[in-house]
Structures are given as structure tokens and as C-alpha cells.
Amino acid sequence: MSMLGCSCGKTIYDNTDHLPYKGHAIADTEWFELFDRISTEVAGYIRARVAGTERQWLSEYFRSDATMDDTELVHTIITRHLLHARIDIYQCPNCGRVHIERRDGSRLFERFTPDAAPHRDIFQK
């Protein structure tokens, strides 16, 4: 999503990282399974490395002759799973409405209006 129109008239842009009005959510029904899949893949790589079959594991996992250091590999495994499991959440900086992406793959959003005004920035510490 590069931009989202809020019903207050504000356009919410998503064209960079570290946006103060954007967050992500993972359904509780997928939370533990997500970490199980990540752990299983990282453990598979560790076993392959100990067994001396690291190159074969990388070739099968990436379907190419990819090479990377351990940090890059673990980051890639985690990112692959998180990107598919999460939904995006945006809070309009103007009116405070929260826009939550639907899980049906439609890229549509459900909108929720805060009870109180002025609204609190939900992603700020």
C-alpha cells in the first residue's frame, strides 16, 4: 500500500520505513505456529552446518546458489515468515482513526474511530 484515504479527508502515505503512524499485527491463532516454523527452519540450517551440508541446505531453501552470513540467513528466514503472517495497521495522524488491513487478501481496511478526542498516538511509546 502506498497511500490510504481516511474518511476525514487525510491521505495516509506509506512510502518509507519507520513511520510513526504505522504498525503490524499477527493473529493470536498464528502466533505460536509462526515461531515454530521459524525455529524449525533455523534449526534445520544449524543441523546442516554442523553436518557439513550447509551449501546443499542453502541451495534447496533458496532454490539458488545463494551465499550469506549467519545473520543475513536468520534475518531472511524471520522476514519471510513475518511478511506473510502480519497485517498492516495505520492510525490517521489527523483524526486518530485506526485502519486495520483485512486478512482476506483483499488489501481493504476496516476503520475504527477513537472514543476520545484528542486521540492518543497508539504507536508512540
Structure characterization notes:
It is a single chain. The chain has 125 residues and is α+β, with helices and mostly antiparallel strands. It has one domain (3-112). It has three helices and six strands; from the N terminus they run E-E-E-H-H-H-E-E-E. The strands form two sheets. A four-stranded antiparallel sheet has the order 3-4-5-6. A two-stranded antiparallel ribbon has the order 1-2. A hairpin with a 6-residue loop joins strand 4 (86-91) and strand 5 (98-101). The longest helix is centred in the first third of the chain and has 24 residues, at 28-51. The protein is elongated, with a radius of gyration of 19 Å. It starts with a strand and ends in a 13-residue tail after the last strand. The mean pLDDT is 93.
Question: In terms of topology, how is this protein built?
Answer:
Elements: E1 3-5, E2 11-13, E3 22-26, H1 28-51, H2 54-62, H3 70-85, E4 86-91, E5 98-101, E6 109-112
Antiparallel strand pairs: 1-2, 3-4, 4-5, 5-6
Helix pairs in contact: 1-2, 1-3
